[in-house]
Amino acid sequence: MMKIFKFILLTFFCISAYAKPLIIGTDGVYPPFDYRDENSTLVGFDVDLIDAISKKAGFEYEFIVMGFDGLIPALKTGKIDIIASAMSVTSEREKAVDFSDNYFLTENLYLKRADNTSIKSLNDLKGKKIGVLLGSAQEFSARKIAGVNVIPTKEIFTSILALKNGKVDVVLVDNSIGYGFLKKNTDLAWFHKQVDDGDGFAFAFDKGKFKDLITKFNTALKEIKADGTYDKLLEKYELK
Question: What are phi and psi of 172, to 5 degrees?
Answer without folding.
Answer: -105, 120
